[in-house]
Amino acid sequence: SPAEENECNRNFPEWACQRKAKLEHLNKKLTSAVEVLQEFAELRDSNQDYSRALAFRRASSVLKSLPFQVQNVEQLKGLKDIGEHVKTVISDVLDHGSSSEVEEILKSEWFKKMKLFTSVFGIGPSTAKAWIERGWENLDDAQKDGCPSGDWRIAWGLAFFEDLNVPVGRIEAIAFSQIVQEEAECILPGVITTLVGGFRRGKSQGHDVDILLSHPTDGAEMGLLPKLIAALGKRGLVLIGHKEKNSFRSDILYQDFKLSARGQLDHFEKWLGICKFPKSFSTPKISKKSKPEINQPTPCTTDTDLKATADSSLDESMNELYEPKAKKTKGSEAIELEPNRISAAPRDWLARRVDLIIAPKSQYYYALVGWTGSKHFNRDARLYAQKKLGLKLTSHGLFNLEKREPLTAQSEEEVFSHLKLPYIDPADRNC
Ligand code: DCP
Ligand code: MG
Predict the structure, then answer these.
(1) DSSP 342-382
(2) pLDDT in tens, 208-253
(3) Parallel/antiparallel/unpaired status of strands 391-393 and 349-358
(4) Which protein residues touch ligand 1 with a CB less than 6 Å away?
């Protein structure tokens, strides 16, 4: 009833990190319209667009948590994050089934090209804009230039564009993370492996597979990553990737600015790359009990095997398809294989984006919250921590800026309680 809606709006929590937001909600038609405006502003990427994008993101987040389906804008009375612009868009959608402003954006050639270019691994709005300025219309134009920037992500992102743009299914993600768990357990018994990102929030598809690794003993996780990559390579699962060293320093809290320049979200040791997922991952055999067989235990790679390959994240089988081409990368001794297709032989795997993140146990629960997301949940929780509590929240911890001491947590619940927030289940963090 209108009275109940009014009451609900009056008590509506101010911060997204205080609200539950499930994947399935009642106002999808409205949020998808607002999200086009948000995306458009994000792609334009000027200072002014940044605050517009933020306003659209906050409005869409409110709509996701509303316990009723909006049928007219009057029902939005009292909700502070729904501004006049958003109300106009919502009325349009409610009255005419679509918003003319949204339709214009969707039709625009600039938006289509920006969406296409930024869907390539390694391409952000500024490179996409530069490509448009060069007059490039499609990915063939970019291919012809052979990755002008020399960035491995773009080169491989272009070469495997089609694979990487097929969403990763939940079953594939689970199958892969079980193999990661098996191999990591052989290298470091007791290892903790968690499938994070959208899949942890209950999504059935994602653009990549994010896996967080830790160990109950702080420090025991050191040295795991190179061995793990070698073991996965030995199993024929690795196509290309790069390791990032741990760069966390507890004495420097304001080092974030160094991160964004390199497209990094935190200082954890990690591997960002592309893996080869056998097609059998997504088409599990159905057994008599009709259970998907996604976990076929296999003997894991031995220690001696690992030593031989510990520094190589490439596996030999790719030579059948890709021509090795010596190429020195900036300031690195690494010889890279360029993704030059020399054979169109059919293959039995799909290229998939994978992030493997290593966190020491003392930072693990903050890393878990940060890598579970959603992106908006993180942004909002960080702003809330700063504005309401005067604390700095990152994926490494929650810090008191004066005492410079982290507030340690032994569980996700404890992270929320330090933040003076009600605990919110991962499935309810889709804000
Ligand atoms: N993350 C973040 N800020 C970003 C990017 C990521 O806080 N700019 C955090 C929250 C994300 C998590 O890292 O949930 C994983 O990043 P992804 O980009 O993989 O995001 P999702 O897993 O949520 O989405 P998708 O399903 O498309 O992979
Ligand atoms: Mg993800």
Answers:
(1) ------SEEEEEEEEEE--HHHHHHHHHHHH--HHHHHHHH
(2) 999 999 999 999 999 999 999 999 999 999 999 999 999 888 766 5
(3) unpaired
(4) 197-198, 203, 206-208, 210, 265, 371, 373-375, 378
Beta strands in 136-223 (DSSP E): 168-169, 192-195, 205-206, 209-214
- Residue pair 243/313 in contact (Cβ under 8 Å)? The answer is yes
Q: Return d(Cα 154, Cα 149) in angstroms, integer.
A: 8
Provide CB contacts within 8 A for 11, sequence distance 6+: none
Rounded CA separation 180/211 (Å):
9
Token code pair at residue 255: 């080092």
Q: When comparing pLDDT for 238 and 291, which is higher? A: 238
pTM: 0.89
| Ordered structural domains, the chain, with CATH | 2-105 (1.10.150.110), 113-164 (1.10.150.20), 168-359 (3.30.460.10), 372-428 (3.30.210.10)
> Which of 57, 201, 210, 356 should be mutated for ligand 1, with most atoms under 8 A from CB?
210
* pLDDT score of 48: 87
